[in-house]
Design brief:
It contains 19 helices and 21 strands. It is α+β, with helices and mostly antiparallel strands. The N and C termini lie far apart (about 75 Å). The strands form 5 sheets. Strands 3, 4, 5, 6, 7 and 8 form a 6-stranded antiparallel β-sheet that branches. It has a 6-stranded mixed β-sheet with strand order 10-11-12-15-16-21, sandwiched between helices. Strands 1, 13, 14, 17 and 18 form a 5-stranded antiparallel β-sheet that branches. The protein folds into 4 domains: about 1-80, no CATH class; about 105-195, PDZ domain (Pdz3 Domain), CATH 2.30.42.10; about 200-335 and about 350-420, Alpha-Beta Complex (2-enoyl-CoA Hydratase, Chain A, domain 1), CATH 3.90.226.10; about 430-530, no CATH class.
């Protein structure tokens, strides 16, 4: 039974690979001995298939207990992939769906952003035009029931709450909501619909003639979203753009090309890949540049994959100044291969290279994924995050940008202007406040009590950011609430973190009042990479 199950899975996987890579299926079957059950071939090339088949035969016929064939097959696939590179992975059907949703740009749900504090689900924001906003759900509402599922008081993980709130498009869920000032629970019948997942979550004028756009992932709609943001900022007089890719973990390769193309001349090389057979595929900008002004790109040690492709393309084409710290260094190309049960293998099939020829991928040893994952800790220990001289670069080979500037490989993209990490405002007291979600919950409650006056006094977010100040009284209330949550007050640490704490509260308030994309505007002045970009943008 197990042998037949796993053999069928391997044969199906063989067919999927053949269809995806346009390999001659009959030749592949012959080579693997598939026509004779995998085990009868005699060539050296298929000895490993024979070993798998023999082990499965032994387990199927001689193992003392019954074995779940599907679980065994999954374990075997995961174990095989672990011997390869750190980015070849297997995902279950449920994991595959969760992985794809943010990149496909939408999912079906009720259209809220929420925060779980202790055992209560607070609505932080309703999606504009989404199902919840249409029926009258507001930021600050507490969701107590969703259908027949009690949410409040159960300390559910975020993943469980999302599973309850999401559902098929067109399905209806009855929400029971607690609202400040209302003695009874309010009931809302919400019809689930497609909810857009935006990849741009910050757009504003950072200074006269300087616009700012923050891109958090590379989804299907990213190119269009960035173009729309640029158009909006150009109408406000933008001549220099700060494109923030800090913490951007990547996404679709095609979206990276779309974003890079907004700034490059048609035909400029964006990235190329090279596989085991030394086949090279190039991606080039496909149109005239959408924005011709100066560009400053922000990256850090968590900018990866597609974010590195864009940064590398603009750097090598001398189209942008890159500011920040050396990027993550993920330059392995994964192709998704779906299996019949909805699970998926993401198999590394090639490497990415910037236009100058630098390989983005940082070094790794096959089968040593744990050591690979410790890279960030090693950067911390080596001092790379604080000191330019500690950054590891491969200076054995020089690469050159379009204008002849020298750049180096070694993994990741090294910025033109290095900015060290600044942790001076981070304290254990700050950490505990954030861990207990004290600040967002306070902001929700504050807006609940002052919404009318806030909306009357501040007609738009520019007026709010120009005039509103988080008062000492508000901070005293936060300290009191934190104490109730078990966060012990420390005066010295509080004083150290106070400027950042006030900025965070202001960002949460603005997000609630003006429906999103405001938080980053409040905290950016305390990000040294952003501050350095503003300095470089000045004439």
């Amino acid at each position: 039974m197990i042998r037949r199950h796993f053999t069928a899975l391997l044969l199906t996987l063989t067919c999927v690979f053949a269809a995806s890579a346009q390999i001659d299926l009959e030749a592949l079957k012959s080579r693997m001995g598939a026509q004779r059950g995998f085990a009868s071939g005699t060539s050296a090339g298929n000895i490993w298939e024979k070993k798998i088949d023999l082990v499965l035969h032994m387990i199927d016929n001689y193992y003392v207990d019954e074995v779940d064939g599907d679980s065994l097959a999954t374990a075997a696939i995961v174990a095989m992939l672990k011997t390869l590179d750190p980015h070849s992975t297997y995902s279950t059907p449920e994991e595959t769906k969760e992985l794809n949703e943010p990149l496909e740009g939408k999912f079906s749900g009720i259209g809220v952003q929420f925060n779980m504090s202790t055992d209560t689900v607070y609505v932080v924001q309703t999606i504009t035009g989404g199902p919840s906003e249409k029926v009258g759900i507001r930021p600050g509402d507490r969701i107590i029931w969703a259908g027949d599922s009690l949410i409040a008081g159960r300390k559910l993980p975020n993943s469980r709450v999302m599973k309850i709130l999401r559902g098929p498009k067109g399905s209806t869920v009855l929400l029971k909501v607690k609202r400040a000032g209302e003695p009874e629970l309010l009931e809302f019948s919400v019809k689930r619909d497609d909810i857009p997942v935006n990849s741009v979550d910050g757009v504003y004028m950072a200074a006269p003639e300087v616009g700012y756009v923050r891109l958090t992932r590379f989804a299907e709609s990213s190119g269009e979203e960035v173009a729309n943001a640029i158009s909006d900022l150009k109408r406000q007089g933008m001549k220099t753009l700060i494109l923030d890719l800090q913490g951007n973990g990547g996404g679709y390769l095609g979206s990276a090309r779309d974003v890079a193309s907004l700034f490059l001349d048609g035909g400029d090389l964006v990235v190329f890949t090279r596989d085991r057979q030394d086949n090279v595929q190039e991606l080039r900008a496909d149109s005239k540049p959408f924005f011709k002004g100066d560009v400053i790109v922000l990256i850090d040690q968590y900018s990866a994959s597609a974010a590195e492709i864009v940064a590398g393309a603009l750097q090598d084409n001398d189209r942008a100044t890159i500011v920040g710290r050396r990027s993550y260094g993920k330059g392995l190309v994964q192709r998704p291969f779906k299996l019949p049960d909805g699970s998926m293998i993401r198999l590394t099939t090639a490497r990415y290279y910037t236009p100058s020829g630098r390989c983005i991928q940082k070094p790794y040893e096959k089968g040593h994924s744990e050591e690979y994952r410790l890279d960030m800790l090693n950067r911390y220990d080596s001092g790379e995050l604080w000191c330019l001289d500690s950054v590891r670069l491969d200076k054995s080979v020089e690469y050159h940008t379009k204008k002849g500037r020298v750049v180096y490989g070694g993994g990741g993209v090294m910025p033109d202007d290095f900015v060290p990490v600044d942790t001076s405002l981070y304290t254990p007291y700050y950490r505990d406040l954030m861990a207990k979600s004290v600040l967002p919950v306070y902001a929700i409650n504050y807006v609940d009590s002052h919404r009318a006056e806030l909306e009357k006094q501040y007609r738009n977010e520019n007026a709010f950011f120009d005039s509103f100040e988080v008062s000492d009284q508000m901070m005293a209330e936060i300290v009191e609430q934190a104490a109730k949550e078990g966060v012990e007050f420390n005066q010295e640490q509080y004083d150290t973190s106070l400027p950042l704490l006030k900025a965070i509260v202001k960002g949460y308030l603005a997000n609630d009042i003006f429906k999103g994309q405001c938080y980053i505007r409040a905290v950016n002045p305390y990000n040294p990479v952003y501050v350095r970009a503003l300095e470089l943008s000045r004439p």
